[in-house]
Design a protein that fits this description.
- It is a single chain.
- With 265 residues, this protein is an alpha/beta fold.
- The chain has eleven helices and nine strands.
- It folds into two domains: 7-205, 2-enoyl-CoA Hydratase, Chain A, domain 1 (Alpha-Beta Complex), CATH 3.90.226.10; 208-256.
- It has helices spanning 31-43, 68-75, 80-99, 115-122, 150-158, 160-169, 175-181, 193-206, 209-221, 227-242, 245-256, and strands at 7-10, 15-20, 52-57, 61-63, 104-108, 111-113, 125-129, 134-135, 186-188.
- The strands form two sheets. It has a six-stranded mixed sheet, with helices on both faces. A three-stranded parallel sheet has the order 4-6-8.
- Strand 1 and strand 2 form a beta hairpin.
- The longest helix has 20 residues, at 80-99.
- The two termini are 27 Å apart.
């Protein structure tokens, strides 16, 4: 499958880096960008060679949301069905990122607002430049703060009180606040954003591939379970992995006093 709405680089050990590449527009999203990102995360689930993804932006922006001219302006005269289908597609992207059972790291190197903020929220890790805020600005432009799954995801990341304030006021969340409330895993100087994201990816690539995939699945699946169901689900998942080759490899490596070499089996 071809992707020409962004840059895609396949690196060593199964690391894929996606770079939104419209720096003159602070990487604002187009219809094609949305569609191709949706398709990438859906199709890549079948590629066992891919073990982690870094998502970032070219220039001074991570993503400034939907392009004002190419999306917002174009939808002003669209029919209801067309607008709804667009809204469905934006939500499909967030769902595909969450359901992609490999870790996704957002390397937030600059402007991160609107749809860009929700895309970053959907990722598993967020590394934020220390001169960049994150803005869920939907109410500022006359729209609901609950867009693309934001009202579902954000309370689970930062808590209901913080999510209510962020989504209702629509004001930028300063980097130090992002780190304090858990919206960012780390805040670093801009030139350290990608190195830190790559360092986290390196640790993940050193880990057991299948166990990490199952961990993300369990994190997603247990959000709406009661405690007994969650414990039972975890017991079954863990029993399967205890019989897996990677766990056996850990035991061998421990006995032989060496680093384990996980294969994802």
């Amino acid at each position: 499958m071809d992707f020409d709405a962004f840059r895609l680089e396949r690196g060593d050990r199964g690391l894929v880096t996606i770079t939104l590449d419209r720096p003159d527009r602070r990487n604002a999203l187009t219809f094609d960008t949305y569609r191709q990102l949706c398709d990438f995360f859906q199709s890549e689930t079948k590629n066992d060679d891919t073990r982690a993804v870094i998502l970032t932006g070219a220039g001074k922006g991570f993503c400034s949301g939907g392009d004002v001219k190419e999306i917002i302006g174009a939808l002003r005269d669209a029919k209801m069905r067309e607008v709804l289908e667009f809204a469905w597609m934006t939500g499909e992207l967030v769902q595909n990122i969450r359901e992609f059972d490999r870790p996704v790291i957002a390397a937030i190197n600059g402007t991160c607002v609107g749809a860009g903020a929700v895309i970053a929220l959907a990722c598993d890790f967020r590394i934020l430049a220390d001169d960049t805020s994150i803005g869920f600005i939907f109410t500022k432009v006359g729209l609901s703060g609950s867009d693309m799954g934001a009202a579902y995801l954000l309370p689970r990341v930062v808590g209901m009180a913080h999510a209510t304030e962020i989504l209702m006021l629509g004001e930028p969340v300063a980097p130090e606040t992002c780190e304090r409330i858990g919206l960012a895993n780390a805040v670093v100087p801009t030139d350290e954003v990608m190195p830190r994201a790559q360092a986290i990816a390196g640790k993940l690539l050193d880990g057991p591939p299948f166990a990490l995939r199952l961990t993300k699945r369990m994190l997603n699946n247990e959000w709406n379970m009661d405690l007994a169901s969650a414990i039972e689900s975890e017991a079954q998942a863990q029993a399967l992995l205890m019989m897996g080759e990677d766990h056996t490899e850990y035991f061998r490596a421990f006995s032989e006093k060496r680093k384990p070499e996980f294969k994802g089996h």
